[in-house]
Amino acid sequence: MTSTPAELPESVVLAEGEGGLPVVRVATAVATGEVYLHGAHVTAWTPAGSDPVIWMSGESRFTPGEAIRGGIPICFPWFGAGREPGLAPPPHGFARLAGWRLLGAEERDGEVTVTLRLTDADTAGVKAAAAWPHPFTATYAVTFGRELTVALTVENTGDAEISFEEALHTYLAVADVRTTAVQGLDGATYLDKAPGAGPDHVTQEGDVTFTEETDRVYASSGTVVVVDGGSGRRIGIAKEGSANTVVWNPWVDKAAAMPDFGDDEWPAMVCVETANALDDAVVLAAGQRHTMTARYTVTR
Ligand code: TA6
Prior knowledge:
Layout: E1 12-16, E2 22-27, E3 31-36, E4 41-47, E5 74-75, E6 101-108, E7 111-119, E8 136-144, E9 147-156, E10 162-164, E11 166-168, E12 171-173, E13 180-183, E14 189-192, E15 202-203, E16 208-209, E17 214-219, E18 224-228, E19 233-240, E20 244-249, H1 251-257, E21 269-276, E22 282-284, E23 289-299
Antiparallel strand pairs: 1-2, 2-3, 3-4, 5-11, 6-7, 7-8, 8-9, 9-23, 10-22, 11-21, 12-21, 13-16, 13-18, 14-15, 14-17, 17-20, 18-19, 19-23, 20-21
Bound molecules: 6-O-phosphono-beta-D-tagatofuranose (TA6).
6-O-phosphono-beta-D-tagatofuranose binds near residues 91 and 248.
């Protein structure tokens, strides 16, 4: 049974974070972590004995109306510019710009699950929400432990069919993206969104490695492993309910063009995102719900 905010376990505190934004902080013998109510944005996860796994930009803003840079942005109900005109800006939907409600938290054997919720009624003050006026309830369960599990459940609370895109846009910390590889996408087709790429899908051959701006939406439902050559760490990403894996690194020019991203920060991160985007958007009949889950495991 999830506790109410007033009954949080001792290992969980609701505090004032960066920019004065409310943040839920978790600390147990097993792991530490934090999630802001702004966007239900996970900004930290560190299993005991490990280095931080989630990357954050030193230039991130913590401002209502702006997305936090780094962590795990929730992209919903559209991805990128969206599949139809009139949605973006902002890119990636309005969920990461909205104030989510803390339903509560519970601890079990050193693992803490924090549950947050957003409904269409909560987005009245979010200008971008007007572009997608459909009744919904989004529930987000974040379990901080030896592993990190994030589960986004969307319910269609209206009486008409809805369609949406979604992504857990996770920024992972690596020693150097130039000596990092992503395993598990060999043979998968992808849409290349990097500048100058053609419109046709491409087939991945071998591991994904990084020598330039990389921005790819793979058709893949399987597990991938981020192999950090610089540190020897491996980050496994298993998932359910997701048809796409997105891999992104901005490289030099795009990093320099983002005001909330340090010019020299790009080697230290890679985004590996659990998603349902483009042709794999989710369609829900009235009353239906869908859950997309990602589970992160660190070895070494
Ligand atoms: O998921 C990759 C991507 O769509 C890239 O094209 C890049 O725009 C990135 O997301 C960051 O988007 P944001 O809106 O967070 O700056």
